[in-house]
């Protein structure tokens, strides 16, 4: 470390910060993740869909029931959870962010099962792979950004006018399926 040329070489090559690759807040970690995504794109092509999924804790009555039991040692009904004031729900959520994150992860896991099911919303387009980046909003609530690759999904801009029409039909089909679910 006393050799200035050696240290400058580490910094110049990006090797000085590799030990931080496991720290989610470090540039080295996100550089590694960027390389993973780029490798997926090289192997699988452009993703078919991009999703952003946010937690809606105040609207999840089951979570409110759990939080009331954990924080107040009180059992409430679904109706009581639904009629609870917004401020009370926010207070419960604020006081137990760990349970909220676990519940969000549980709902996300259930969503992946639905999206991967042969009779799910991507029927006819098998879910080949996904890349998920989890972030926390300012209030501490998690949300995820997702790239999805679907088998036989339409490709936009194949220098083919039919590709645009195929993309429009695909999007319309998904929007109408999700709107009716």
Task: Walk me through what this model shows.
It comes from Rotaria sordida. This protein has one domain (35-174). The protein is flat, with a radius of gyration of 22 Å. 53% of the residues lie in helices and 14% in strands. A hairpin with a 5-residue loop joins β2 (127-136) and β3. With 181 residues, it is α+β, with helices and mostly antiparallel strands.
Distance between the termini: 61 Å
**What is the alpha-carbon Rg in Å?**
22 Å
Order of helices and strands: HHEHHHHEEH
Counting helices, strands and paired strands, the structural category is alpha+beta
Q: What does the average pLDDT come to?
A: 86
**Helical proportion?**
40-55%
Low-confidence stretches: none
Shape type: flat
Strand content is: 5-15%
> Main sheet: which strands, in order across?
1-3-2
Question: How many β-strands, per DSSP?
Answer: 3
User: How would you sum up the major sheet?
Assistant: 3 strands, antiparallel
